[in-house]
Amino acid sequence: MSESKGRVLLAYSGGLDTSCILAWLIEQGYEVIAFMADVGQEEDFEAARKKALAVGAKKFFLEDLKREFVTELIYPALQANCIYENVYLLGTSLARPIIARGMMSVAEREGCDFVSHGCTGKGNDQVRFELAFYGLKPDIKVIAPWRIPAEFYHRFAGRQALLAYAAEKKIPVQQTAAKPWSTDENLFHISYEAGILEDPDTTPPADMWKLTTDPEQAPETPQRISIEFAAGLPVKVTVPDENKVYTDGVEIFLALNALARKHGIGRIDIVENRFIGVKSRGCYESPGATILRAAHVDLEGLTLDRNVRSLRDQFVTIELSRILYNGHWFTPEREFVVSSIPASQKTVNGVVRLKLYKGNVIIEGRSSDEGLYDEKESSMDELGGFEPTDTTGFIAIESIRIKKWAQANIRKGRVTV
Amino acid sequence: MSESKGRVLLAYSGGLDTSCILAWLIEQGYEVIAFMADVGQEEDFEAARKKALAVGAKKFFLEDLKREFVTELIYPALQANCIYENVYLLGTSLARPIIARGMMSVAEREGCDFVSHGCTGKGNDQVRFELAFYGLKPDIKVIAPWRIPAEFYHRFAGRQALLAYAAEKKIPVQQTAAKPWSTDENLFHISYEAGILEDPDTTPPADMWKLTTDPEQAPETPQRISIEFAAGLPVKVTVPDENKVYTDGVEIFLALNALARKHGIGRIDIVENRFIGVKSRGCYESPGATILRAAHVDLEGLTLDRNVRSLRDQFVTIELSRILYNGHWFTPEREFVVSSIPASQKTVNGVVRLKLYKGNVIIEGRSSDEGLYDEKESSMDELGGFEPTDTTGFIAIESIRIKKWAQANIRKGRVTV
Amino acid sequence: MSESKGRVLLAYSGGLDTSCILAWLIEQGYEVIAFMADVGQEEDFEAARKKALAVGAKKFFLEDLKREFVTELIYPALQANCIYENVYLLGTSLARPIIARGMMSVAEREGCDFVSHGCTGKGNDQVRFELAFYGLKPDIKVIAPWRIPAEFYHRFAGRQALLAYAAEKKIPVQQTAAKPWSTDENLFHISYEAGILEDPDTTPPADMWKLTTDPEQAPETPQRISIEFAAGLPVKVTVPDENKVYTDGVEIFLALNALARKHGIGRIDIVENRFIGVKSRGCYESPGATILRAAHVDLEGLTLDRNVRSLRDQFVTIELSRILYNGHWFTPEREFVVSSIPASQKTVNGVVRLKLYKGNVIIEGRSSDEGLYDEKESSMDELGGFEPTDTTGFIAIESIRIKKWAQANIRKGRVTV
Amino acid sequence: MSESKGRVLLAYSGGLDTSCILAWLIEQGYEVIAFMADVGQEEDFEAARKKALAVGAKKFFLEDLKREFVTELIYPALQANCIYENVYLLGTSLARPIIARGMMSVAEREGCDFVSHGCTGKGNDQVRFELAFYGLKPDIKVIAPWRIPAEFYHRFAGRQALLAYAAEKKIPVQQTAAKPWSTDENLFHISYEAGILEDPDTTPPADMWKLTTDPEQAPETPQRISIEFAAGLPVKVTVPDENKVYTDGVEIFLALNALARKHGIGRIDIVENRFIGVKSRGCYESPGATILRAAHVDLEGLTLDRNVRSLRDQFVTIELSRILYNGHWFTPEREFVVSSIPASQKTVNGVVRLKLYKGNVIIEGRSSDEGLYDEKESSMDELGGFEPTDTTGFIAIESIRIKKWAQANIRKGRVTV
């Protein structure tokens, strides 16, 4: 009997693809351990466990990573107002480092030299997973079947070939018709892409959206809540009309998810630029995160120094969003950029009051004891803080270089429009 | 009889403040010409003209600057997706350079050595106006009464003193009670600040909002429109259910304003950082601009190269927004930044389909013949453009430096979290 | 007789590698046209022509690209003060787009479907060439023998295998011993890398440096020159002690090269980060460019507005340098970034006086009629331009937000160090 | 007898200006305490003490701030490669926060409500000092006599008026003729500005330069040294030919100063942009800092990840340099930016070997045990780390978006140059 080629930890989903990959890896002579991460997706983990073992996995690990997902990835991204290409809140990107770290931890413990996944060869996730693996365990070897032409990619071109292989390997296949798009779900969001969505001019069907109520079907009556932040992190959510208060980090996030889902908040539909340079159409629902981001951005208006905000927006927000999207979490540049977040959030303390209504997150007020906002100082009606003549001096100084340039334009006959 | 101290061009609004300033300037020995710009605000210009002449203005000029406001300021800002501190679309900032240029043109023609305005000593507008004046006409002299302590500021402290002076000078005063906030309006937006809004935790009263329907009162039925862009500029707006098509730049903007107003689109409420470093609370309605920005950002997803978008976002969007906010339009840095816009918009051609509903601008689809998006290439279901093994190479190369860093961490015992 | 697989345009150098590639391509069934670019390197082009034809090339093209190299690549990079990782002036990077464009033009004319080159699989040049090819002619097919494992890479592993193949194919081989490093030369610079230089702690041997005199051997007597710029470009170089004046763009560059070489100016020795993420040690001599950059940077001090300079430094200089280094010249981001250069150089007019001495470029003075510098205004000894009280106002306004922050620190007990 | 107006802490230099200010403050009714900081300048502190007390100061404080100047300001700036407008190493800027903090500490201890200085109304130092005061002690009141028109500025216009006042107040005046420029000196550098230097085309006279040997007079024989860095900070300087090793932070800096001075290293002559927008000509000698910066930049090539370097250059280097120059050290943005430095310097460990020769700092080699540089991987001569086919994949992926753009250009007839 031939010896094993080695032990592989497989990122297992319970679906057709990774079940076939599991069987195929065994066929190729590997010993396979199946891995699942619970990052809040709706999933029958027990069924998946049984299936993996039935197909031939030596072991099955289910890791509950929800809390670290919220506290170690989602909250720093929130503190930095992360957003990709103006609209995407990075829900899939945020989960990948957590899952990859969970896998490397099991791979280490179980002595796996290899790791495998079912990502296709065109997407972002293969890159995000593999770069995260290498950043944590640079000697790990990756088996990406969908990028192995002869043995896998061409052999299993098309769903029929996979189904035939599943039948051959006695892999149970769900009878439900596949949806004409694919999804990725976790407690932060769900994504929809591929299939009928590949035509960017096709409006997503109403029944595609899974996490949020259609704004048109959302309640006619607005609901008011307040969120308290400490150092830029949500520490208390109050929902007066439900008589509820949440203070635990994970519970806060889940409560905001529930509220946002009810009010149809957090849907987007975009064409984005994948890391590999291909444009791709994606639809996303990020309910709770949409509320949290709006509230955090608003509170920063009241409590964050102008120059810190401006530098943070131009560097941390943009760069950390790119780092997340491109799967560069376990890199020195992530450590570098993230290290500046605490200093930017010291003063971001206070409460934001919000109204939720049919897709809208409406800010109704905010307060803080930081004192960076000073009613008297900003008031047009009274003096406070500085003299009007100070502004005359300020403008005089600010105009020095502008006047010089304007004089040069006039002398040189250069026209300013 | 004493000689005139010189000729002043006064930015006149028809209100109490600038009418008193008009009278006061005459009292100080100046000859005053009143100037009004029509930038789309709701205003009785004829009444203002009569009042100015009645108070003693030698001449009155009303300049219709709406078209240049839209085409020379609003549209470049739109092409660059300008936004200040994540939320403010810069409606007041955009109008100032146009008004200032109109004034300098009249000042030149009428031989005015001085220019005057009614801006307070704490706001942004004094800075925006004066820096614009100096950038166009560096030898102009500015009289800013609200920053002249003895002769004006202290003399007219409080509204009563102004009313008394108005009575003395026979300046007609509107009997309507002053609103407990102040506003600035033009065809792009209206702003509300000061008064009761100075407490950032006070929710603006429902009857404050003037330009847009309350989302809760907006139509129950969504409305669909499409906007066609050429080189990043809107060139056609189609409103099927009204059987309307708009192709003129100004008409497009006004039509979008009407649609957005109806559907409660474009309200914001923020605490922002003024140029002088004071935090200030402002509420704004920017109806049409909110739709246009959403559509433009979306079309860029489909048609703009990833790297151009990213560089443009990090530099042009942020810097031009700051330039606009701080009143630095007539400066070399504005010329520099704006000169890069056309190259960024070459490929931004196509159509965006939108649904307007109770405060929401929902993208329903977009199309373009630019071809930067390629269904086959992004499809997970078929090959196209590149081989899956290419991505293996890409990831291998991308991981080189990450592995080196991870190996150093391991060797040096540095922990990566 | 078998049909040709197609026509290949080969970037030919006359050396062993590309001669063997030429023979090998013919052996593989291609028809080969040899291409050489004269970008100012020291080379026996006629010998190369004979050799290429002797080995079997159907045709040989030598394109003189020196002028466009200087005017279309070097000068924009100079205007933008391009520099990679603080020290490298990008000499090789600058030549690549020019050569690639020359090749695509010949490929188009001669109906070549393929293009080939002798770059190794680890360097920057393969990337720079190929991305430039694709940016100009996206349907071109590239044959990169050093990245074809079975047929080429493994077959010709090591110099002996190549020499044997050369002997077999009757390719004449130069008897001179190969230097223990490799070089790339053009009129801008020469680079040295690989071989003994791969140990970054090995000091380059004195006889390696080819273009410049060792500073220790350079003249004891300094030499003074002046450079006049118009819109940021050098338009006149005056060398008083040689009684010489240069006004032609190419001649100016060559004259500065000669001066810098004599005075030992422009050597660097660095470890840089290649585009593929590998660190690499390189030594470079960029004589004339070093003088020009120092003079241009200095003149910008006198003539460029502060804010334009700052934005240009942070945006154009850094991004264009990266674009050049990574071979992204024929991309939309290059068009975007370069489009902003003219607006940044309008006022960069004037003369810089320099002293050249043993490796040093010493600025001795500069002048301009732009007037952005104003002796009176900057003088500590006299008034001019603004009142001292204006600065009091400026500081008062600048301190508003700082005081607020300091007060919050005190109130909250946060320590500032 | 009238009561004191309060207690003033005066930044005293021992010179004519601040001695007159001292007398004038007393004349105005203040009680004055004189403060001097020893930041390494050449100065007769004892004579200054006697003079201050003779003129009427109640107390005199001399604070030795050299160590904190080096470790708290100079070294972070070195780690971040700070440089202003490409050339200026910020010597004056770096000392200001240290001096201001020393003053605020004495002001607190001695119960001074006021602080005063002799800075003119046109320079950077007034801004730097005052913003630093406010950032530390927001309720401090500043008396800046050179910005008080009636009582001081106009009264003492011109040196004669000051001399007369000195005579009247029996202030001893040095008989030595004033130099035709002014200087600011500390252990980092000396600056020269004003006077004959105000003409930017005037070459500074040879006898102006005080800290460094003229390169033309520097030794004919080069000297070799090595600098070891740990986490980006110099921890050991070895001078073999002097048989010297330095390991203390301050001693390292002073030793490098001595070496650089001897070899004529660190002179610059520039026109810079002051914070107030005025252009100003300055000459500087920053001997040791010039060596240290060159060595640090070089070592980062070997030891710092490419992406960290690039982000740090674009963000920290540029922003911290501006923060320093503009006197924004005690601000939230400085805390924010500086907080990211440690993460950027973790791997900057190793040794740089240098040759010093007539104004040149020549890198001769560098080494590190970090391992981010890998000879095998970068070698053109052998495989290592990745396969040549990986690069083929990398280029294929990198070219995806470029080809799309090029195809669009061709289809649309847009010309790429």
From TrEMBL, chains A, B, C, D:
An example Gene Ontology biological process: urea cycle
Ranges where the Arginosuccinate synthase-like N-terminal domain occurs: 7-172
Pathway in which this enzyme or protein is active: Amino-acid biosynthesis; L-arginine biosynthesis; L-arginine from L-ornithine and carbamoyl phosphate: step 2/3
Superkingdom of the source species: Eukaryota
Entry's EC annotation: 6.3.4.5
Keywords: Amino-acid biosynthesis, Arginine biosynthesis, ATP-binding, Ligase, Nucleotide-binding
CDD domains: ASS
GO cellular component terms listed in the entry, alphabetical order: cytoplasm
InterPro entries (alphabetical): Arginosuc_syn_C, Arginosuc_syn_N, Arginosuc_synth, Arginosuc_synth_CS, Arginosuc_synth_type_1_subfam, AS_cat/multimer_dom_body, Rossmann-like_a/b/a_fold
GO molecular function, one term: ATP binding
Family (UniProt): Belongs to the argininosuccinate synthase family. Type 1 subfamily.
HAMAP family: Arg_succ_synth_type1
Protein name from the UniProt record: Argininosuccinate synthase
